[in-house]
Amino acid sequence: MPTDTGESPLRQPFLDAMSQLTNSVCVVTTDGGGGRAGTTVTAMSPVSADSETPSLLVCLHADSLTAKAIAQNAVFAVNVLAEGQSGLADGFAGRHGATGPDKYDSVTHSSGATGSAHLDGAVAIFDCRLKLQQAWGTHIIFIGEVADVVLNAPSQVLTYTKRRYLG
Which H or E run contains 65? Predict the structure, then answer.
């Protein structure tokens, strides 16, 4: 039963339990007619390596500029951050006050196969073409077919657990 605020009584226990998991930190980028945008996520997962084209998914809040831009651009890149890139993660999470394309100010990057930004120093980058989007509650699940994979110099991946970065 929802609380007076409309939230499920399971919301906070769910968040507390999820905070115990360790996840890779990624920045999802997109560029095209719908605009340049990007955001930090831990909600990224492979879907299939054995289909005709490998695929992965990311989950973004439906109201985010990045979700709206991906829906219009139909492309996105998932940049898996390396340890030591927590400042970059914070910047794309909006913790430094930048929004929209301003998040790219002073960030070294190049355009990938789909036109989405490849961030310098990322351990791996999955450049994707949008194949499916599904609204689920407050979020949108985006599934992309991988158009290109960039694997940079081996490094430890930046992770997030217990509401803090490791690495």
Answer: helix 65-73
Q: Is residue 109 part of a domain?
A: yes
What is the per-residue pLDDT across 55-67, written as a single tens digit (0 to 9) for each?
A: 999 999 999 999 9
Burial of 13 (0-12, 13-18, 19+ CB in 10 A): exposed
Rounded distance between C-alpha atoms, residue 50 and residue 40, angstroms: 27
Q: Which residue in the block uniquely carries the two structure tokens 């831009």?
A: 69
Measured CA to CA, the distance from residue 57 to residue 130 in angstroms comes to: 10
Q: Does residue 1 sit within a domain?
A: no
Q: What is the CATH number of the domain that holds 118?
A: 2.30.110.10
Residue 4 lies in a domain: no
The model's pTM: 0.93
Decide the pairing of beta strands 26-30 and 37-41.
antiparallel
Burial of 116 (0-12, 13-18, 19+ CB in 10 A): buried
Domain of 40 in residue numbering reads as 11-166
The pLDDT of residue 5 is 61
Number of domains in the chain: 1
| Residue 160 token pair | 């997030």
